[in-house]
Amino acid sequence: MSSRPPFASHSSEPVRRAEVTIRLSEFEIPPMQDVLLVGKRAPIGPEAVRRMVDALTPEQYDIIYLDHEIFEAAVLKRSLLKFLPQEKFLPVILEEGMRVATENTVVKAQVNIVVQVNRAVDL
Fold first, then answer.
1. What is the pLDDT of residue 5?
2. What is the C-alpha separation between 35 and 73, in angstroms, rounded?
3. Distance CA 32, CA 56 (A)
4. What is the pLDDT along the chain (123 residues), one digit of tens a residue?
5. CA torsion, points 31, 37, 39, 43, in degrees to nearest 10?
6. Considering the entire predicted model, what is its pTM?
7. What are the backbone dihedrals phi and psi of residue 90, each rounded to the nearest 5 degrees, phi first?
8. 74 in Cβ contact with 91 (< 8 Å)
9. Rg for the chain, CA atoms, rounded
10. CA-CA distance, 66 to 97, in Å (whole number)?
11. How would you write the chain as a 3-class SS string?
């Protein structure tokens, strides 16, 4: 039997380790996801966003101009609005966006909407 402890270090130097986490996902064109919130003083305005969206993915997004304290516009993926109407979805995304954004930022959001339906039928 050895008299050395099982985890003895070879020197008195601290142990340094690095942990690497990599998330790979499909590159999307345009480089936005489901929602883009455009701040009132953001470096890119709603018209520039409209040109980008129309050039790369025509008729997939709606641009909604806002009368809001932080955001000038919201760009919403049309397919989301089939699951949840704009008047229900927009207040939620603005409320959550306000928690992380300023007037100078453009925030993109990935949104998952799950619709749950339970139906009964007469037998």
1. 54
2. 11
3. 11
4. 445 555 555 678 888 887 877 666 555 555 668 899 999 999 999 999 889 888 888 899 999 999 999 999 999 999 999 999 999 999 999 999 999 999 999 988 889 888 888 999 999
5. 10
6. 0.71
7. -60, -45
8. no
9. 24
10. 14
11. CCCCCCCCCCCCCCCCCCCCCCCCCCCCCCCCCCEEEEECCCCCCHHHHHHHHHHHCCCCEEEEECCCCCEEEEEEEHHHHHCCCHHHHHHHHHHHHHCCCCCCCEEEECCCCCCCCCCCCCC
| Look-up of token digits 């919130």 | 37
Pull the structure tokens for residue 26.
Answer: 């499909």
